[in-house]
Design brief:
By secondary structure, this protein is of the alpha/beta class. The protein is 31% helix and 18% strand. It contains 16 helices and 20 strands. The longest helix is centred in the last third of the chain and has 19 residues, at 415-433. The strands form six sheets. A five-stranded parallel sheet has the order 3-2-1-7-20, with helices on one face. Strands 9-18-10-11-14 form a five-stranded parallel sheet. Strands 4-5-6 form a three-stranded antiparallel sheet, with no helix packed on it. Helix 12 (391-407) packs parallel to helix 14 (447-458). It has two domains: 2-139 and 346-490, FAD/NAD(P)-binding domain; 144-341, 3-Layer(bba) Sandwich (FAD/NAD(P)-binding domain), CATH 3.50.50. The two termini are 15 Å apart.
Length: 493
């Protein structure tokens, strides 16, 4: 079987590794000149670091180097992925700097891919028996439409997404406005504040930030990256243990979250700064955990950056020949550079509109069984469409699931049943996350539930003792390194 994988980030590389072990002929395409996806040097903004510690953000078969800091930076993550490629000999199957222009479903079923060098050149065709979409759930920056942008740029202003801002020198000595309050916005605001004349953050809505160390002592990974942390939130199909202890959504869970909230308010001095977010700390896990950027609140306190809360940018303007921005509260401020940390739109641009219509509902949510298999499009699967606390591990186990499916050892439910299950979960996650579910691709905060469901389908597991340890200790990906081998043994490979 010939398999094409589109995307050379964590998900694409992990899928390629597993499918090659099965004996499939695999080719991985990525239009970037290097591997890494969001960690590619073509998208790596200054100040980028992981939200996971190095032990939980690694593949099961290859830990990150011991000399890495606890929270590796973007360059280190990309180097780690390069070491993964080298260690497992994936280099020969990579086609970097190659854009998949179109992928057309043809009789077979099979996929005909139109390929060309990134940036232009002569197109070629290649046919594959199966297509894996691994282009990531953060594939295209969602830059808002800003009134007056043309006039603003004519006056010398610049508007750029965080993932397209790669050189701090572009901010040196300038007045910079950062739009957003998520991870990339805050990361970049701190980095920019070291070189800019002024740095202002315009936040439509403040978010709760998780301390890296609660009260300066307890590493957040013991609260969030464990099964107990996951059980603080009510799953739509809770296990018996979760119903009993600590009681999802019950007094124990709410009390723990309220305690962390109170500590965060004191630790970051949010009240004097006027930066206490609305709502409860429990909202932190609705779609993602926003880990605090080191130095953010300190710079807000000493004036190196300014946070304007509960505002939007009404208009970009030019005043006296200089670019400015007018905020929704009426303030107008100089802004030579506007950096948008305003999220991402997930798109699969190489698939035809009629195929996309069979992959999404009327709200644009992806309809994927186990975040992998579309019920209504043959010879197609997705990898990494599970925004998770454990993206590398989730992608790996998802790759084993895909391999089992392609080997004929796993039979998903009938299409009608898959559609019903997908609809049920989407309706529930829509309510739980208040719509913040990345078009149906987020499994946060239920990352281990997601992995458990995949393993149940595979009739594979890591054993009760391993799961018991995961209740109080951060999940160790290396505990799962034998899952792929067990599948191969079952199929005599």
């Amino acid at each position: 079987m010939k398999v094409a994988v589109v995307g050379a980030g964590y998900a694409g590389l992990g899928t390629a590794r597993m499918l090659l072990r099965c004996g499939f002929e695999v080719t991985v395409y990525d239009r970037a000149p290097d591997i890494g996806g969001v960690w590619s040097r073509t998208r790596r903004y200054p100040g980028l670091r992981t939200q996971n510690d190095k032990r939980t953000y690694a593949f099961s078969e290859l830990p990150m180097p011991e000399h890495y800091p606890q929270w590796p930076d973007g360059e280190q993550v990309q180097q780690y992925l390069e070491s993964y490629v080298e260690y497992f000999g994936l280099g020969p199957v990579l086609r970097l700097g190659t854009e998949v222009v179109t992928a057309d479903l043809i009789d077979g079923p099979a996929w005909s891919l139109t390929l060309r060098p990134a940036g232009g050149g002569e197109s070629t065709q290649e046919v594959f028996d199966h297509l894996v979409v691994a282009n990531g759930v953060f594939s295209r920056p969602a830059v808002p439409v800003l009134a007056g942008r043309t006039q603003f740029e004519e006056a010398g202003g610049r508007v750029v997404a965080t993932s397209d801002f790669l050189d701090l020198e572009d901010a040196r000595g300038r007045d910079v406005l950062v739009i957003g309050y998520g991870k990339s916005a805050c990361d970049l605001a701190v980095a920019i504040s070291d070189v800019a004349s002024s740095t202002t953050v315009a936040a439509r809505r403040l978010l709760w930030k998780m301390p890296r160390k609660v009260a300066g002592v307890l590493n957040y990974k013991y609260l969030i990256l464990t099964r107990v942390g996951e059980a603080l939130f009510p799953y739509f199909r809770p296990s018996l243990r979760e119903k009993i202890l600590p009681g999802p959504g019950g007094r124990v869970g709410k009390g723990m979250l309220a305690g962390v909230q109170a500590i965060a308010v004191r630790q970051f001095r949010l009240r004097p700064l006027g930066l206490v977010p609305p709502g409860s700390f429990g909202e932190i896990a609705r779609s993602t955990v926003s880990l605090v950027t080191e130095g953010f609140y300190e710079r807000a306190a000493d004036g190196r950056l300014r946070v304007r809360r509960d505002v939007t940018v009404d208009e970009l303007t030019a005043q006296e020949g200089r670019p400015h921005a007018r905020l929704s509260d009426g303030e107008t401020l100089p802004a030579d550079l506007v950096v948008c940390g305003t999220g991402f739109d997930q798109q699969v641009p190489f698939l035809a509109p009629e195929v996309i219509a069979r992959l999404q509902d009327e709200h644009g949510n992806f309809l994927l069984h186990r975040q992998i298999l579309p019920p209504d499009v043959p010879a197609l699967s997705f990898a990494g469409y599970r925004s998770s606390f454990f993206c590398p591990l989730g992608s790996e186990i998802g790759a084993v699931w895909t391999a089992a499916y392609l080997l004929g050892g796993l039979r998903p439910p009938p299409a009608a049943q898959m559609r019903a299950d997908i609809d049920e979960k989407l309706r529930w996650i829509e309510k739980f996350s208040a719509g913040k579910h990345a078009r149906g691709t987020s499994v946060i905060p239920f990352s281990m539930h997601d992995i458990d469901e995949l393993l149940t389908d595979l009739r594979l597991d890591v054993g009760p003792l391993t799961k018991a340890r995961q209740w109080l200790l951060p999940v160790d990906p290396s505990a799962y390194r034998g899952i792929g081998t067990a599948l191969l043994a079952r199929h005599g490979r």
